[in-house]
Write a structure and sequence with these properties.
The structure is a single chain. This protein has 162 residues and is α+β, with helices and mostly antiparallel strands. The protein folds into two domains: 110 residues, HIT-like (HIT family, subunit A, 2-Layer Sandwich), CATH 3.30.428; 40 residues, no CATH class. The chain has five helices and five strands; from the N terminus they run H-E-E-E-H-E-E-H-H-H. A five-stranded antiparallel β-sheet has the order 1-2-3-5-4, with helices on one face. Strand 4 and strand 5 form a beta hairpin. The protein is globular. The structure holds zinc ion.
Amino acid sequence: MGGDATLPQESTPAKGSGDGCVFCKIVSGAAPAYKVYEDETTLCFLDIHPYTKGHCLVIPKRHVTWWHEMTEEETASVFKTARMCARKMVKAFGCDFVFLYARGRRIPHTHIFLIPTHKDDVLDRFFHALEKFQESPSELARLKDANDMVQAMEILRETPGE
Ligand SMILES: [Zn+2]
Protein backbone atom coordinates (compact mmCIF):
# COMPACT_ATOMS: atom_id res chain seq x y z
CA MET A 1 0.00 0.00 0.00
CA GLY A 2 1.32 3.45 -0.82
CA GLY A 3 0.08 6.67 0.54
CA ASP A 4 2.80 7.86 2.85
CA ALA A 5 4.45 11.12 2.08
CA THR A 6 7.63 10.30 0.19
CA LEU A 7 10.84 10.54 2.17
CA PRO A 8 14.10 10.48 0.22
CA GLN A 9 16.14 7.36 1.00
CA GLU A 10 19.27 9.25 2.13
CA SER A 11 17.44 11.19 4.84
CA THR A 12 15.65 8.21 6.37
CA PRO A 13 16.09 8.64 10.12
CA ALA A 14 17.28 5.89 12.43
CA LYS A 15 14.49 4.16 14.35
CA GLY A 16 13.54 6.14 17.44
CA SER A 17 15.26 9.29 16.22
CA GLY A 18 13.55 12.47 15.10
CA ASP A 19 16.65 13.65 13.23
CA GLY A 20 15.86 14.09 9.56
CA CYS A 21 12.27 12.92 10.05
CA VAL A 22 10.03 14.65 7.54
CA PHE A 23 7.07 14.67 9.92
CA CYS A 24 9.18 16.28 12.67
CA LYS A 25 10.17 18.89 10.07
CA ILE A 26 6.49 19.51 9.33
CA VAL A 27 5.81 19.87 13.07
CA SER A 28 8.66 22.39 13.47
CA GLY A 29 7.64 24.28 10.32
CA ALA A 30 10.89 23.39 8.51
CA ALA A 31 8.91 21.47 5.85
CA PRO A 32 5.63 22.57 4.27
CA ALA A 33 2.33 20.71 4.65
CA TYR A 34 -1.33 21.22 3.85
CA LYS A 35 -2.30 21.57 7.50
CA VAL A 36 -5.95 20.86 8.29
CA TYR A 37 -5.87 21.02 12.09
CA GLU A 38 -3.30 21.56 14.80
CA ASP A 39 -3.31 21.62 18.59
CA GLU A 40 -0.68 21.34 21.32
CA THR A 41 0.11 17.65 20.83
CA THR A 42 -1.25 16.63 17.42
CA LEU A 43 -1.26 17.68 13.79
CA CYS A 44 -3.54 16.71 10.90
CA PHE A 45 -2.47 17.39 7.32
CA LEU A 46 -3.23 16.17 3.79
CA ASP A 47 -1.29 13.12 2.58
CA ILE A 48 0.67 14.28 -0.48
CA HIS A 49 -0.18 10.95 -2.19
CA PRO A 50 -3.93 10.83 -1.57
CA TYR A 51 -6.09 7.77 -2.25
CA THR A 52 -9.00 10.13 -2.42
CA LYS A 53 -9.82 13.81 -2.01
CA GLY A 54 -9.27 14.86 1.59
CA HIS A 55 -7.08 11.88 2.60
CA CYS A 56 -5.27 13.06 5.77
CA LEU A 57 -2.62 11.91 8.20
CA VAL A 58 -2.85 12.55 11.95
CA ILE A 59 0.42 12.49 13.89
CA PRO A 60 1.57 13.08 17.45
CA LYS A 61 3.92 16.08 17.50
CA ARG A 62 6.49 14.09 19.46
CA HIS A 63 8.58 11.68 17.39
CA VAL A 64 7.18 8.21 18.15
CA THR A 65 7.75 5.32 15.73
CA TRP A 66 4.78 3.05 16.47
CA TRP A 67 1.31 4.07 17.62
CA HIS A 68 1.47 1.63 20.54
CA GLU A 69 4.54 3.47 21.83
CA MET A 70 2.58 6.69 22.36
CA THR A 71 1.74 7.76 25.91
CA GLU A 72 -1.86 7.42 27.06
CA GLU A 73 -2.27 11.19 26.72
CA GLU A 74 -0.87 11.16 23.16
CA THR A 75 -3.11 8.23 22.21
CA ALA A 76 -6.18 10.07 23.51
CA SER A 77 -5.17 13.30 21.74
CA VAL A 78 -4.37 11.61 18.42
CA PHE A 79 -7.68 9.72 18.36
CA LYS A 80 -9.61 12.79 19.47
CA THR A 81 -8.08 14.72 16.57
CA ALA A 82 -8.72 11.79 14.20
CA ARG A 83 -12.37 11.64 15.24
CA MET A 84 -12.85 15.37 14.85
CA CYS A 85 -11.17 15.47 11.43
CA ALA A 86 -13.16 12.40 10.31
CA ARG A 87 -16.36 14.25 11.19
CA LYS A 88 -15.15 17.18 9.09
CA MET A 89 -14.62 14.76 6.18
CA VAL A 90 -18.10 13.26 6.42
CA LYS A 91 -19.61 16.74 6.38
CA ALA A 92 -17.30 18.12 3.70
CA PHE A 93 -17.19 15.20 1.26
CA GLY A 94 -20.35 13.23 2.05
CA CYS A 95 -18.40 9.98 2.39
CA ASP A 96 -20.02 6.84 3.87
CA PHE A 97 -17.38 6.60 6.57
CA VAL A 98 -13.73 7.38 7.21
CA PHE A 99 -11.26 4.54 6.98
CA LEU A 100 -8.53 4.56 9.64
CA TYR A 101 -5.28 2.70 9.99
CA ALA A 102 -1.90 3.34 11.56
CA ARG A 103 1.54 3.06 10.00
CA GLY A 104 5.13 3.90 10.87
CA ARG A 105 6.92 1.58 8.48
CA ARG A 106 7.81 3.91 5.60
CA ILE A 107 8.16 7.03 7.70
CA PRO A 108 9.04 5.96 11.25
CA HIS A 109 6.86 8.58 12.94
CA THR A 110 3.41 7.32 13.94
CA HIS A 111 0.75 8.38 11.49
CA ILE A 112 -2.91 7.59 11.43
CA PHE A 113 -4.40 7.43 7.94
CA LEU A 114 -7.82 9.02 7.62
CA ILE A 115 -9.38 8.24 4.26
CA PRO A 116 -12.86 9.35 3.26
CA THR A 117 -14.46 6.21 1.82
CA HIS A 118 -17.37 5.70 -0.54
CA LYS A 119 -19.01 2.40 -1.47
CA ASP A 120 -17.11 0.66 -4.31
CA ASP A 121 -14.24 3.14 -4.44
CA VAL A 122 -10.67 1.82 -4.80
CA LEU A 123 -10.09 1.37 -1.09
CA ASP A 124 -13.51 -0.19 -0.52
CA ARG A 125 -12.85 -2.75 -3.29
CA PHE A 126 -9.32 -3.42 -2.00
CA PHE A 127 -10.61 -4.26 1.46
CA HIS A 128 -13.44 -6.36 0.08
CA ALA A 129 -10.75 -8.40 -1.70
CA LEU A 130 -8.71 -8.61 1.50
CA GLU A 131 -11.78 -9.76 3.44
CA LYS A 132 -12.40 -12.49 0.86
CA PHE A 133 -8.80 -13.60 1.22
CA GLN A 134 -9.14 -13.56 5.01
CA GLU A 135 -12.23 -15.75 4.93
CA SER A 136 -11.22 -18.37 2.38
CA PRO A 137 -7.79 -20.06 2.69
CA SER A 138 -7.68 -23.25 4.69
CA GLU A 139 -4.64 -22.10 6.72
CA LEU A 140 -6.65 -19.18 7.96
CA ALA A 141 -9.75 -21.30 8.45
CA ARG A 142 -7.76 -23.52 10.80
CA LEU A 143 -7.18 -20.52 13.06
CA LYS A 144 -10.91 -20.56 13.75
CA ASP A 145 -10.60 -23.91 15.55
CA ALA A 146 -12.20 -23.48 18.98
CA ASN A 147 -9.12 -24.77 20.84
CA ASP A 148 -6.82 -22.40 18.95
CA MET A 149 -9.17 -19.51 19.62
CA VAL A 150 -9.25 -20.29 23.36
CA GLN A 151 -5.46 -20.61 23.39
CA ALA A 152 -4.98 -17.27 21.61
CA MET A 153 -7.44 -15.62 23.98
CA GLU A 154 -5.67 -17.02 27.05
CA ILE A 155 -2.23 -15.97 25.78
CA LEU A 156 -3.48 -12.44 25.17
CA ARG A 157 -5.30 -12.26 28.51
CA GLU A 158 -2.20 -13.36 30.41
CA THR A 159 0.21 -11.05 28.55
CA PRO A 160 0.59 -7.68 30.29
CA GLY A 161 -0.43 -4.72 28.16
CA GLU A 162 1.67 -2.18 30.04
ZN1 LIG B 1 9.43 12.43 13.55
